[in-house]
Write a structure and sequence with these properties.
Length: about 300
């Protein structure tokens, strides 16, 4: 299925049973709810999907489940986050065989590569399959920055078609436009910078909190893209305390707790992550419940 890279793309959670085993049925049910809410595509096995906590075979199980649920209604992308270039290439090829429509490729995990190594990694993954690629730039979480000059150098590879910009520096949208023109589709990858990113030229949003608030997420997107900025700003101000949860090291736990509170999933995570406890849990629940009690209506 062709990916147009525009719109809301959930970074979908992976659901687990209480013993931390994969719950593919619950994951499938959640995907159906997201599609029903009008998302434009699905991204499996990103950071929020706990990619690095899954075994290789489990990743393919999750991806095949998503492809089966989507049934061509929306494109299904998968994160590619492995510790070696060889394994990333292998997974890219296996993802294509599993029916993925595109890839969201990260730098190699653990090792902090320099620019030459980073670009070599991305070029190798591009050659491993025929799928289009969204390059995921998240130096805050992964310690490797793919800068606008690097993207200008990578522009000769036609499979690189989109950028998920997660540097938390909204200036990057303009810098990328100035460095690369319209070469790439730009997507916001930081929930609490989405309105600013849309104003500056982002055409897509890879969102985490959409897992728990899909209708409100879509409402904000539609208002902003329609240029109804005063209405969008009102929704954004309501949503921002929740969106701040996307920028914390425990974003997965926070998002899954929000899903549990809205009835859209379980808060179970896989170790080394653990469910929230004590003051932290009560504080995050307070933010979530306040949002639920004051949520806007379309």
């Amino acid at each position: 299925m062709t990916v147009n890279w525009q719109g809301v793309f959930p970074a979908v959670t992976t659901q687990f049973r209480s013993d931390q085993s994969l719950d593919l049925a619950a994951t499938a049910a959640h995907l159906e709810k997201l599609i029903g809410a009008g998302v434009h595509g699905l991204i499996m096995l990103g950071t929020v999907g706990e990619n690095c906590s899954l075994e290789y075979a489990e990743k393919l199980q999750v991806l095949r489940t998503a492809v089966s649920v989507a049934e061509g209604r929306v494109p299904v992308l998968t994160g590619v986050a492995e510790c070696t270039t060889a394994l990333a290439c292998r997974f890219a090829a296996d993802a294509e065989r599993a029916g993925a429509s595109g890839l969201m490729v990260l730098p190699a995990m653990v090792y902090k590569s320099d620019p030459r190594e980073t670009m070599t990694h991305f070029r190798a993954v591009a050659k491993a399959s025929g799928l289009p690629i969204m390059c995921y730039n998240d130096p805050v979480s992964y310690g490797v920055d793919i800068t606008p000059p690097m993207f200008a150098e990578l522009a000769d590879e036609p499979k690189f078609v989109a950028i998920k910009e997660s540097s938390e520096n909204v200036r990057r949208i303009t810098d990328l436009k100035n460095a690369c023109g319209e070469r790439y589709q730009l997507l916001c990858g930081v929930d609490d910078l989405v309105l600013e990113s849309i104003v500056l030229g982002a055409v897509g949003w890879v969102s985490g909190l959409v897992n728990a608030f899909p209708a409100e997420n879509r409402l904000l997107w539609d208002l902003a893209r329609a240029g109804r900025f005063e209405e969008a700003l009102n929704v954004y101000r309501w949503y921002t305390p929740l969106l701040h949860l996307d920028t914390h090291v425990k974003l997965v736990q926070y998002i899954k707790l929000a899903m549990a509170e809205t009835g859209l999933g379980s808060e179970t995570v896989r170790a080394p992550r653990l469910p929230l406890v004590g003051e932290e849990r009560e504080r995050i629940l307070g933010i979530i419940r306040q949002a639920i009690n004051t949520r806007p209506r379309a």
